Amino acid sequence: xxxxxDRRGLLRGAALAGGTAAFARWMxxxxxxxxxxxxxTLPTLAGEDITLRVAHQRMTVDGRHxxxxxxxxxVPAPLxxxxxxxxxRLHVVNDLDEETSVxxxxxxxPFQMDGVPGISFPGIPARSTFTYEFPIxxxxxxxxxxxxxxxxxxxxxxxxxxDPADDDPVAYDREHVIxxxxxxxxxPHQIFLKLKKQAGYFNRRRQTLGGLLQGEDQPxxxxxxxxxxxxxxxxxxxxxxxxxxxxxxxxxxxDNWTALFQRGERVRLRIINASAMTIFNLRIPxxxxxxxxxxxxxxxxxxxxxxxxxxxxxxxxxxxxxxARAYSLIAESVDRSGMARATxxxxxxxxxxxxxxxxxxxxxxxxxxxxxxxxxHGDMGAGVGMNMAxxxxxxxxxxxxxxxxxxxxxxxxxRTGEPGQGLEDAxxxxxxxxxxVASERNPDVRxxxxxxxxxxxxxxxxxxxxxxxxxxxxVKDPIPFIAGERVRVTLINDTMMSHPIHLHGHFFELxxxxxxHSPRKHTVNVLPGSKVSWDVTAVPGDWAFHCHMLYHMxxxxxxxxxxRPLDGAAA
Amino acid sequence: MKPLLFGLAPLALAxxxxxxxxxxxxxxxxKMPAKVAPKPAVKAKAPxxxxxxxxxxxxxxxxxxxxxxxxxxxxxGNMPGxxxxxxxxxxxxxxxxxxxxxxxxxxxxxxxxxxxxxDLPPGNAPPPAPASDxxxxxxxxxxxxxxxxxxxxxxxGGMIYSKLLFNLLEYQAGAGADGYRWxxxxxxxxxxxxxVVRSEGSGAFRGGVDEAEVQALYGRALDPYWNLRAGVRQDxxxxxxxxxxxxxxxxxxxYWLELEGALFLSTRGDLLGRIEGHYDQRITQDxxxxxxxxxxxxxxxxxxxxxxxxxxxxxxxxxxRYERSRELAPYLGVSWDRKLGxxxxxxxxxxxxxxxxxxxxxxxxWF
Lengths: 571, 367
Hints:
The complex is a heterodimer of chains A (571) and B (367).
Chain A: H1 2-19, E1 34-35, E2 45-46, E3 49-61, E4 64-71, E5 80-83, E6 87-94, E7 103-105, E8 129-135, E9 140-145, E10 157-163, E11 174-183, H2 188-197, H3 209-213, H4 220-228, E12 245-248, E13 257-260, E14 267-273, E15 280-283, E16 289-294, E17 297-304, E18 306-309, E19 314-319, E20 327-333, E21 339-345, H5 384-389, E22 413-414, E23 450-459, E24 464-467, E25 479-482, E26 486-493, E27 499-503, E28 508-510, E29 520-521, E30 523-526, E31 530-537, E32 541-547, H6 550-555, E33 558-564
Parallel strand pairs in A: 1-13, 2-5, 3-6, 5-10, 11-14, 13-21, 22-31, 23-26, 25-33
Antiparallel strand pairs in A: 3-4, 6-8, 7-9, 9-10, 11-12, 14-19, 15-18, 15-20, 16-17, 16-19, 20-21, 23-24, 26-31, 27-30, 27-32, 28-29, 28-31, 32-33
Chain B: H1 2-18, H2 40-43, H3 91-96, H4 137-140, H5 142-155, E1 161-174, E2 179-189, E3 193-204, E4 208-221, E5 226-236, E6 243-253, E7 257-266, E8 271-278, E9 281-282, E10 287-298, E11 310-322, E12 328-339, H6 341-349, E13 355-366
Antiparallel strand pairs in B: 1-2, 1-13, 2-3, 3-4, 4-5, 5-6, 6-7, 7-8, 8-10, 9-10, 10-11, 11-12, 12-13
GO molecular function, one term (chain A): copper ion binding
InterPro entries (chain A): Cu-oxidase-like_N (IPR011707), Cu-oxidase_2nd (IPR001117), Cu-oxidase_C (IPR011706), Cu-oxidase_fam (IPR045087), Cu-R_CopA (IPR006376), Cu_oxidase_CS (IPR033138), Cu_oxidase_Cu_BS (IPR002355), Cupredoxin (IPR008972)
GO cellular component, one term (chain A): periplasmic space
């Protein structure tokens, strides 16, 4: 049945592709401005041997040219299409004059193939080739990107789709890959240095006196309270639309990348957030999105109107457009300073209404982990007492208190049942982590032998970010695990920003009340002032563990998880 | 070779669908579209009963889950076609159409109150001791890995930064001769330790430099907001070219006040103090009003420098800058200063003014 549809789609797509001439050379075939869908575009890279050439190149976004680092001449990098059960040999040719690397985000593989220079291997030196070789033991939507320097921000990222060995339990007639990313004409080192010199550099939506007089944002009393705490409630994103253009498959909002469909089809969108720094709120006005997969793992279908996708996450959704009209795919940055935009349409050249950016969110006392009275908007009666509690070492004895720790949230809450910053009052169905239930029973349903707490710490004034108050440059010992042991890891976000935390080489099960059907993820967004717990079964090796905000990681918000013994599980 | 691959791949994409499914029972609750016809012949196998303790089909080898209660599975009847044997009552319907009648909203496992998986509380096993061996050594060699790890650590929190800031760089027009004024600093270092060079001074366009000083300081982050500054100050310009040891702090106080305080001890034993503060009031995103205040103090008379004991002078400023570009922001404003107490007396005896109001225009810049 599926096969028939696929073949029909193939023919249809071939006809369409012939009719759409605007072919951008720096784009992979699946990301061309009008895409009839993967089933019918020229495929990208598949098979046992795949060659990826990393090099400098130019790219054009909304008509503006800029410099990029791409793979095989494209940004995003080519789609790598694999099949569960196959062996993959990926030859990465480094044509740069600096080291590079490729990390296969979400793939379960031997640690020495994980692609993090300094942890899993020495990196790929300039003008050399490295071959990754590992078996493909899973299926789903994933992605790959550089783990060297800040190359990821420059375009060194691409999608991976792994087809299941058996028939795909998710039925669909057509599929599109949606790679979301953020692009700046500034060199990423410049972006980072600006943040170090003036942390609020890119925030062009601060509270102002003019705003106060017009009754916007916080009232005066609250502004004074927040000023007293030296906290900026408009600090939602470090790098914003003031420099970023938000991309869908390498195309700016003006480029209007278009994904084609036929009325009534079940269209599978494989959404990947490959941004360096941007959390997106994604919706397709007029269409219900049925979430069927998260981080490459199938989940029970759940219908939503909007979802927040943090950096490095993937969501597969099914949409079924019943009208032969255009729909806008809108991905607003979490601070609402810009949007990525694409169109789903039955024919090329169509466009739907693009809704204006919604009002930007303002951080609340809850985001500071100080939601003492259950009140959201900072009616704190405690006054000075609260200030004292903002950074009480007694609330986090394991944290090294230094200049890099601005706050210790005194009252973190589990916010996995909340839709994410700025979506509390969206007025429609928004996905929460608690909505995710694994399709299959979890492979390991043992109770955890122990719990490990890790604090996410930072200082927004100095732009310092760390785990447990220690930057990777300062860390003495990696985080130790015993191979095969089951550990509950609780991430406590002491900062007022979201942190997408990624553990390499593992899937972990979120503790969200779903027992042996807990959602399995490789990256989890820890909302400001909140905690998230997950259970994980340790896999032998050394694994990177970090915040996937590129500049947070660069500032030191990274650790190594060391799982021993290397030969076989002891537990 | 590549074109061939490209050409073949669409066929490969179509293949998975062609291979008929026999593992649908692993994927409960997937809503199939109406147009995807049921496949009874194949699907009838779906609810095949399986022992509850048998691991999931795709489980990794290292995982051997054993439910604490072997009967737990029977209570999970609302898990469609999962690990639990199909409950007797639901069997006929499920056998006919595996996609019918599943309650998608039902919670797994917990329904019976027997916790499993992540619903289980953590134990209190002690954490293992940290291992010191680097796993990748055995594949890539200890030398190469040690070097790579060094680079990794440097690049993740161990970097060196630098900044050059002119908070004031301005033209001043007032009662006397038009003049100029600067107040800036440059630093280089990491998050914790920095080397800082500060300089401030003023002069008249036709009289040369009035007063000027340069400080070379070691800066150390004390806490999230405050930095220690310690080093030497050298006075330049026409007056006595004193050298001072300096010790101070600077940082951000509550309500975003940028404050700085320093003590200066000269080679002759004179002790001075200085407190300085400013605040950036954003009027719009691009317009910033910066009120600024500076107070100088002396522990004793310093006749050579015409400074009297106590509060020696005060300066207040109000500058409105246009910050479309953060790095290069032009401003206009006023600055008022007054010599106080004995210092004012020194000035009067020398026939100098004791201060006044000036209009200023300048550029705040940093790189």
